C-alpha cells in the first residue's frame, strides 16, 4: 500500500508538471506571439525545447523545495501529505487557468506544501522552516528568504528593469534617428520591428530556458522528497534489483542529489505540457494588459529572464508569471501610464496575493479530511 502511494505521488507530481507546462506557457511565449514574430505553433515549439534544456541545466531550486521549506524532524512528509500538497496546487492552477489569470505555479506548490505540513503537524507552525542559516529573516533556507521576500522583490525588480531597459532603448532610438544610418533610411518603426523581431527570438528562448530551469525543478524536488522518505522508511526493502533506481539516500544534513532519471522525466513532461499551450493566459499577458511591439517584447523577456536565471542560480523558486507580468507592466509604463489596462493588472495582483493562502488552505483541508479517514495519524 505504501509503495502504491509513493508511486501515486510521482504520478500526481508529473500531472502538476504537465499542468504547469501549459499553465505557464504564456510566460515564455505570450510576448513573441503578441508581437507576431512567431506564430502560436512556432512559439510553443520554441518554448517546449527551451523548457527541456532549462529543466536539465541545474537542481538548486529542486533542493530548496525538497529540503529547505519543511522541518522533517517535526512532521513526517508521507506520500499522503505530498498528495494533498500537490492537489492543492493543481486545483488552484486549473481554476486560474480557466479564468485566464496568470497566477504562480511556484507559489501554488509552496503554499500547498506548507499547508499540508501545518495540518500534519497538528497546526504547529514550527513545522514550516521560516528562516535558517543567517540573520533573523535571511538565511540559506526557509519560506521567508526563499519564497516571501523573492515573491515581493522579484516582480519589483522585473518592473524596474523593464522600465529602465525600455527607457534606455527609447533614448538610443532617438539618438540613432538623428544620425544617418539604417534607422533613418528605413524609418524608426520599421527598423525597430525588423531588428527586435529577430532579437526577440533570443529573448524568448532565454525566457523558456529560465522557465524550465526554475519551474520544472519544483516537481523534481517533490518527487525526490517522496522517494527519499520512502527509502528512509524501508518502503523499498525487498524490491527487485531493477527497481533500486527509486531509492534516494539523504546525507546527515538532510540533503540529497536529484537523480538523472527524475530530471529527464520532469523535463520531458513539462515540455509536453508546454507544447499543449495555454491560450487563455497568453491572451491576458500578450494582448489584454499592454499592446506590445517587438521592441517591447524583447525588453520584457530580457528583463524577466535575467531575474529568473539569477534566482535559479541561488536556488530561489521565484514565479516566472510574476516576473514576466511585472516586466510587461514596466514596459507599458515606459510607453505611457495609460498604455496599461489597470483593471487587468488588479485582477492579476489579487490572484498573486491569494495563491499562497488559498493553496495552503486547500491542502490543509485535504490533510484534515485524510486524517478523518484514518490515512494520516
Describe this protein's structure.
The chain has 377 residues and is mainly alpha-helical. The chain has one domain (2-372). The chain is built from 14 helices and no strands. The chain has helices spanning 2-23, 25-34, 40-55, 60-67, 79-99, 105-120, 143-177, 182-186, 188-232, 260-276, 279-288, 294-313, 320-335, 342-372. The longest helix is centred in the middle third of the chain and has 45 residues, at 188-232. The protein is elongated. It starts with a helix and ends in a 5-residue tail after the last helix. 55% of the residues are buried.
Short description:
The chain is 72% helix and 0% strand.
Taken from the alpha-carbon principal axes, the silhouette is: elongated
Helical/strand content category: mainly alpha
Number of helices: 14
Helix content: over 70%
Low-confidence stretches are: none
Count of structural domains: 1
Taken as a percent bin, the fraction of beta residues is: under 5%
Biggest sheet: strands, sense, closure?
none
C-alpha termini separation: 16 Å
**Rounded Rg:** 21 Å
Total strand segments:
0
Q: How are helices and strands ordered from N to C?
A: HHHHHHHHHHHHHH
Q: What's the overall average pLDDT, rounded?
A: 83
Descriptive terms for the model:
single chain; 14 helices; mainly alpha; 377 residues
Q: What is this structure's SSE topology?
A:
Elements: H1 2-23, H2 25-34, H3 40-55, H4 60-67, H5 79-99, H6 105-120, H7 143-177, H8 182-186, H9 188-232, H10 260-276, H11 279-288, H12 294-313, H13 320-335, H14 342-372
Helix pairs in contact: 1-5, 1-9, 1-10, 2-3, 2-9, 2-11, 2-12, 3-9, 3-10, 4-9, 5-6, 5-14, 6-14, 7-12, 7-13, 9-10, 9-12, 12-13
